[in-house]
Structure formats: structure tokens, C-alpha cells
Give the backbone structure.
Amino acid sequence: MNANVICGADSLDKDVYSACGSDMMSDVLAFVKDQAVLLTGLVNSQVIRTAQMMDMQCIVFVRNKIPAEDMITLAKNSGLVLLATPLRMYEACGILYSKGLTGSKCNE
Amino acid sequence: MSETIQFHYDVDGENFTSAGEASVQIKQKLRQLGFTPDIIRRVSIAMYEGEINMVIHAGGGVADVFVDPESIKIILEDHGPGISDISLAMQEGFSTATDTVRSLGFGAGMGLPNMKRYTDSMEIDSELGKGTKITMVVNVPI
């Protein structure tokens, strides 16, 4: 995805098996299927909280969105990996899907 | 743990950034108390959606959580505008949230349905102009 690592570089070797892409956090919260990766174009602290609630491991910010410092701190405290990619949501999801991260019930 | 443990939180209605802090704390407490990941996730998501609702619709409120080995009860109470049609509010996709709230990632009309989805029982007691009290229970399988 040509992504930059914002934080959590020491956790990049973890295995993940499912993902979800959405800008609506309640849609993410509606489908608990052990999604480990959240792709989103939304940038506020509730994205981090949603990932915490869902026991996710990684958030990918699409369209070059960069989280604020307080979000990064919140993510570090939760052990979350944050990535930022210049790709749009559709392309980023497509690349991960084609590489085998086939997700679960997932809304975009 | 044999007796009921109670946790109380004030939910700040002025601060969207801090919304969800109480749910994060409950999640940590339940983890310390040794509940299973499934129970912890259900309780924390239901409470989180409730917290967000209190912030975006009601100007904040209070959250009380009663934890015992058989069940976890969450009571959320606010003095907001109340819900005029509860059955309509329970429909997935129905929302009265503003565009501003939607731009923050909420207001998709999934909050109350999600709270019901993740709990074993949910009661809504609401009076227009007075406020809303939501009682949710998650049973713990023995």
C-alpha cells in the first residue's frame, strides 16, 4: 500500500486474518468478527477507541490522512499499529484482499 | 469476586474527544476481574455506543456499571431531550444525528441497535424534555 508507519513499528510482524473498511464507526462496531485491521478515512480519537473496543491490532488511514498527536499517543498506549497510505479506500482494501486478507462481514 | 462491584462515571457532554473513556476503563476493569474476551467486548461496545449517544444527543450524563459473577448491568442516564418514538429509534439506519456528528463517524443509525445486539436485555425509559434511562444486562455463562 506504499504506507508509512506512524507508530507500532515493533508489531509489524504480527499475523492478521481479517479486516474491515469504513468511515462510519457504528458500522464497524456492528459486526464483531475478530477484524484485526481497520481501514478508514476518518481521523479523530473515536477511530482509536473503536479499534480498542474491537480488540483490533492495526488502523490504516487512507487518502494520506494523518492522525493528530493525541490520537497517536492513545494508539501507542493501546499497542495499536497506525499506518498511513496515499491510496483511496477502495484501492487499499483491494490490495489487502488480493494478498489474502479476505476480511469478514465488512462495510465500506 | 462474590459481591457486586459498582463503578460510576460522569460522561462529559461537551467533549467529543473524551467520549468513550468510561467504556475503556470498564474494559480494563473487566479484564482485571478475569471475564472472557467475548463478554468484555460485548459490554464495552454496548456501553461505548451509549456513551457516544449521551454526548451527541443529550449533553452528557452518568453511567453506572454493576458487576457480579453472573451478570453485568449497565445503566446510562441523561437529562437530554428524550426519545419521541423508541421503536423508530431502534430501527437500523434511523438517525436524528446532525451532519456534524455524521462527519465524526457516528449517526449511522446503528447505536441503539448495536446496544441491543450485544446485550441480553435492554430497557429504554425515556420522557420528552426530561431525559432517557437505558438499562442493559449482559449475562455471564457459568
Remarks:
- The mean pLDDT of chain A is 91.
- Chain A touches chain B through 21 residues (CB under 8 Å).
- Chain A has one domain: 4-98.
- The CA atoms of residues 7 and 76 of chain A lie 7 Å apart.
